[in-house]
Design goal:
Structural class of chain A: alpha+beta
Radius of gyration of chain A: 27 Å
Radius of gyration of chain B: 23 Å
Order of helices and strands of chain B: HHEEEHEHEHEEEEHEHEHEEEHHHH
Distance between the termini of chain A: 46 Å
Number of helices of chain A: 11
CATH superfamily of one domain in chain A: MetI-like
Largest sheet of chain B: 5 strands, mixed
Largest sheet of chain A: 4 strands, antiparallel
CATH architecture of one domain in chain A: Orthogonal Bundle
Shape of chain B: globular
Number of helices of chain B: 12
Number of strands of chain A: 8
Helix content of chain A: 55-70%
Largest interface: A-B, 56 and 62 residues
Strand content of chain B: 15-25%
Oligomer: heterodimer
Strand order of the largest sheet of chain B: 10-9-11-8-12
Number of strands of chain B: 14
CATH topology of one domain in chain A: MetI-like fold
Helix content of chain B: 25-40%
Shape of chain A: globular
Chain lengths: 383, 346
């Protein structure tokens, strides 16, 4: 038989099977939904949701639509993922480097941390941080102030709210500082390339980022005051704090457990990356007169990052997807608010689950695209 | 070439299997659920994940409760043995999907009958086996004795996917009180969080509050406030589209309630066959051809009464004797001042 046809037939069969299976499920779902009198449609998204959500980044209550409830859940998922990724990355890098430390105590401690946290199921860790830590926290009326203004209680963490005057002037000053730093850096690179002189760019940058905003306070009319949380009595033994910003314990427990869990995997990626750079590279760099700082910054890290980034991207994706475990501890994420309450109140299972799946898919793909772009940027550029 | 022939045949076989399934679903008989149940030999029943008095499993895995008894009654009627039930514990969130997708055939899980659930999502409510209303539980030490003492900023723990979530909003809105809803997926987690002090109040159906209170680390530290803020008629649910199965479940429940009305108990059911009252005789299968209407024999209701007992026996065994709600309140027969009233079995 012709080689070409031999190649095409299996592919055709695959396509046919996929189409048939998909078609069968769609058809079956249609028939069953019709038999049971269930309508299919996305019109419910504009209906009034009539349920409230504990914690929301945008204005929301039950008089808003289901679509708004979806946005509330989505933003809460993004919030916990972003904070989780930042903390996990910082912690992961520190622990990963610590595992390579020549100090026995430090590297053993880091190894213990990694083995302990990555080998306990995440859901258990979330329950632990929520229920065990929750019971250990004081009731609002018994809480001692930390630094005089923070209150960590069973009902959440209360922090002072910033009250700004002329906030825009302050923001402009920061933007101006950043632009100035970029310009100076470009100039410094040119000076180094043409004259071989190195300018103290780091100290200039630090100075700018502090001095310009400071000036905005002194002469720009910017002022900042704090609204400190105050204890409010609800009943004889029932209290809460009012004023300031309150972070629900669900958010804290979820972020903490996600970050601690994912950091162990990132730490291993970092360790692998640094160990993956040949010893000869460091020795060669030292032999041409670079100091240890420069060796790390200019030779080791750029090569290590190429090994670190791809597996770390996976961990970012995992963290984002794992955030859906929030439903277990009442953090109102996408799954709890939309695929939970909204699904129950409307009964639109297929519609809501499909939207939720597409949303997670888009979130994951966005992270992938971003990380792939970064990966490409730091990849070897063959000239 | 043989290789592809093989692939092709397996594909054809697969497609053939798929289509047999499809044609079977399309050719739904009068009561497919009844036929399937008899073929399997057990009733597939969705219950709660543990609500004392309603549906709760002991250490040995034996389920008890008035919701459980509804499924047992159906098993007694349909299969002749009240123990031939497979229980599936479900969270509030999972329950309707489990029923509409066909994982279970009866949902008997303290579920509130509402218009939108009945009309909108492919379900049919068959009756009410417990008249309930939403209430609030608080710590005794808080000094709160009425919902009128609630203040702005109160935090309330509850379950997601329940009517409670909606009622709570209606209640606090009508009082103009701002509140923080903390909604969990499982009842055990709600109780744990409330018990730890995360919330000032725990709100759900009053029967649920009374039952969950028994699970608290110190039940006497908590009280259920007297106010009832909603109507919560709880009852068994079936899938829409199988009206014979719907009738079987409805009349299994009705038979239990009517048996109590006529004083037929598990102990005296057999002797009632010689009763002078035709209504009693019909219920114990000594007169009429009631079972034939659902494709069952005539002793279906006798088996229910003998194996499960009448409604009063079930209530006493599961709810009164366990100390959850000794007073039957609205769940007393209409002849005794309650609102339990079922159409006659004739």
């Amino acid at each position: 038989m012709d080689l070409k046809i031999q190649k095409i037939i299996p592919q055709l069969i695959t396509v046919l099977v996929v189409v048939l299976v998909f078609g069968f499920f769609t058809y079956n779902a249609q028939i069953n939904m019709e038999n049971r009198g269930i309508d299919f449609g996305y019109g419910f998204l504009s209906q009034e949701s009539s349920f409230d959500v504990q914690f929301s980044l945008i204005e929301y209550d039950g008089s808003h639509s289901y679509f708004r409830a979806y946005l509330v859940g989505l933003l809460n998922t993004i919030l916990v993922s972003v904070i989780g990724i930042i903390i996990a990355t910082i912690l992961g890098v520190i622990v990963g480097v610590a595992r390579l430390s020549p100090n026995y105590l430090i590297n053993q401690f880091a190894a213990f941390y990694v083995e302990f946290f990555r080998n306990i199921p995440l859901l258990l860790q979330i329950f632990f941080w929520y229920f065990a830590a929750l019971r250990a926290l004081p009731l609002p009326q018994d809480a001692d102030a930390m630094l005089g203004v923070f209150f960590l209680t069973i009902k959440g963490l209360y922090v002072p709210a910033f009250i700004w005057e002329n906030l825009n002037v302050f923001l402009y000053s920061i933007i101006a500082a950043i632009i100035a730093i970029v310009v100076i850096r470009i100039h410094a690179r040119k000076v180094q390339e043409t004259q071989g002189k190195q300018l103290p760019v780091f100290w200039i940058s630090v100075g700018l980022i502090f001095i310009l905003p400071l000036l905005s306070f002194l002469i720009g009319g910017v002022s900042l005051s704090f609204e400190i949380p105050k204890l409010k009595q609800l009943a004889t033994t029932s209290f809460k704090y009012e004023g300031g910003i309150s972070l629900p314990p669900e958010l804290i427990a979820l972020t903490l457990s996600l970050a601690l869990y994912t950091a162990t995997f990132i730490a291993e990626c970092v360790r692998a990356g640094i160990q993956g750079v040949g010893k000869g590279q460091k020795e060669a760099a030292a032999s041409i007169g670079l100091n240890p700082n420069q060796v790390l910054k200019l030779v080791v890290m750029p090569q290590a990052l190429r090994i670190i980034i791809p597996p770390t991207t996976n961990q970012y994706l995992n963290l984002t997807k794992n955030s859906s475990l929030a439903a277990a501890i009442a953090y109102p994420d996408l799954v709890l608010v939309f695929a939970g309450t909204a699904l129950m109140q409307t009964g639109k299972a297929i519609e809501i689950v499909s939207i939720t799946m597409l949303t997670y898919l888009s979130l994951s793909i966005s992270i992938s695209i971003l990380m792939n772009w970064y990966n490409k940027k730091i990849a070897i550029k063959e000239k | 070439m043989f290789k592809y022939l093989k692939q092709l045949t397996s594909l054809v076989a697969m497609v053939a299997v798929l289509f047999t399934f499809t044609t079977e679903t399309m050719a739904a008989k009068k009561s497919k659920t009844l036929k399937n149940t008899q073929k399997k030999g057990f009733v597939r029943c969705g219950v709660s994940q543990g609500l004392p008095g309603f549906s709760n499993a002991d250490a040995a895995g034996n389920w008890t409760g008035i919701d459980v008894d509804v499924c047992r009654a159906v098993a007694a009627a349909v299969l002749g043995d009240a123990n031939k039930v497979k229980f599936t514990p479900l969270s509030a969130k999972e329950r309707f999907t489990a029923l509409t997708s066909g994982e279970i055939d009866i949902l008997s899980r303290n579920t509130t009958w509402t218009l939108s659930r009945d009309a909108d999502i492919g379900l049919t409510f068959v009756g009410v086996n417990f008249y309930d209303g939403q209430g609030f539980m608080v710590r005794k030490s808080s000094g709160i004795t009425s919902t009128s003492q609630f203040k702005d900023g109160i935090s309330a723990c509850t379950n997601i996917g329940t009517t409670t979530e909606l009622n709570m909003r209606d209640f606090f809105n009508s009082k103009g009180i701002s509140y923080e809803p903390v909604a969990f997926e499982k009842a055990d987690e709600v109780v744990a969080a409330y018990d730890a002090g995360r919330c000032d109040t725990y709100t759900t159906d009053k029967s649920g509050l009374a039952a969950q209170r028994t699970k608290m680390s110190n039940p006497d530290d908590h009280i259920v406030l007297p106010e009832t803020v909603s109507k919560e008629p709880l009852g068994p649910v079936v899938r829409q589209g199988d009206s014979v199965w719907e009738d079987i479940v409805r009349w299994s429940l009705n038979a239990m309630i009517e048996a109590e009305e006529y004083g037929i108990t598990s102990a005296n059911a057999d002797s009632m066959k010689t009763s002078d009252n035709p209504a009693v005789k019909r219920l114990v299968g000594a007169e009429g051809e009631l079972g034939a209407a659902f494709g069952l024999d005539n002793e279906w209701s006798l088996r229910i009464i003998k194996q499960v007992g009448n409604y009063g026996e079930s209530y006493k065994r599961n709810i009164a004797d366990t100390g959850i709600l000794p007073d039957r309140g609205p769940n007393e027969l209409w002849t005794k001042g309650g609102i339990l009233y079922v159409p006659p079995a004739r």
